[in-house]
Amino acid sequence: MSEKVTLRGLRRMKGEGRKIVGVVAWDYQIARIADRAGVDLVSVGDTVGVNLWGQANPFEVTMDQMLVVAQAVRRGVRRALVSVDFPFGPLQEGTDSAVRAAIRFVKEAGADLIKLDAAADFPEAVEAITRAGIPVFAQFGITPQTALRYGVEYSAVPTAADQVPVEMRDAMVAEAKRLEEAGAALLNFTNSGPVVGAAVAEAVSVPVVGGFGGGPWLDGRMRMAHAAIGYAASAIDDPPDTYANVARITLDALTAYADDVRAARQVAGGVPVPPAT
Question: Is the separation of the CB atoms in 246 and 231 below 8 Å?
Fold first, then answer.
């Protein structure tokens, strides 16, 4: 697990049928843990605003906020590749804006890849960023930034649109091929489904991974680290299907801490308090 992950290595994994493991992370500590777990890709998602800061939707996140989060994650990762999401705005404002934003993420945050939502709508930006020497992680399918186009509210993306309709197979394959031709180094196909997802993964030579709505039919999976460990406060009352329930553990720990303080007991890990004389 000590060998540095490379894009060439990810392509080799696709060719050999070995699955790529990706996680979404937003802070230094989780990034360190994910890297130690041996994941191949750490993605700094623009959903940080919704899932960590309580914002209403990912459109609120700014470029400067994403830079701060990306810098924290980069400090925690040594082995895996680090990808950073564009917030809504730089890509939509034009190619020059997109290239400037990509350069900032590389220069100021040390990103290995730049992830573009709705990338197929902006092939010229994919080409320009790639031409600037910056690898592009292109996201397509029913994504947070394209959900409204499909008549899906952002909050319902993971459930109301479990998979791209089968009749969209040819369109999605064509979209994936356009992204590959534009120079994308990696594709993120959200809500792919086993039929359309398998067709897309087979149609292109670059690795195709998926977040929500992904599955073993793709070349790899993406999962929010905080979702995998049950970090959200909602996990306290409605235990999710996760690998842990960190929210419950945290509630129990902080409740015990509060009890010790109120009872004038020594707190765990605190500076020892000498007994009263």
Answer: yes
- What is the distance of C-alpha 263 from the center of its chain? 43
| Contacting residues for 132 by C-beta, under 8 A, at least 6 apart | 99, 102, 103
With 90 as the cut, is the pLDDT of residue 7 above it?
yes
Continuous H helices in 44-190: 48-51, 63-76, 95-109, 123-131, 157-160, 169-182
- Give the whole-angstrom CA distance, residue 272 versus residue 266: 7
Neighbouring-strand partners of residue 254: none
Q: Under DSSP, is residue 81 helix (H, G, I), strand (E, B) or coil?
A: strand
Cα→Cα distances 45→7, 99, 173, 198, 265, Å: 19, 19, 25, 24, 41
pLDDT in tens, 35-47: 999 999 999 999 9
Q: What is the CA radius of gyration of the chain?
A: 20
Name the burial class of residue 238, with classes exposed (0-12), middle (13-18) and buried (19+) by CB atoms within 10 angstroms of its CB: exposed
Q: Which two tokens stand for residue 31?
A: 């990034």
pTM, rounded to two decimals: 0.90
Q: Is 253 helix (H, G, I), strand (E, B) or coil?
A: helix
How far is Cα 187 from Cα 179, in angstroms, rounded to an integer? 8
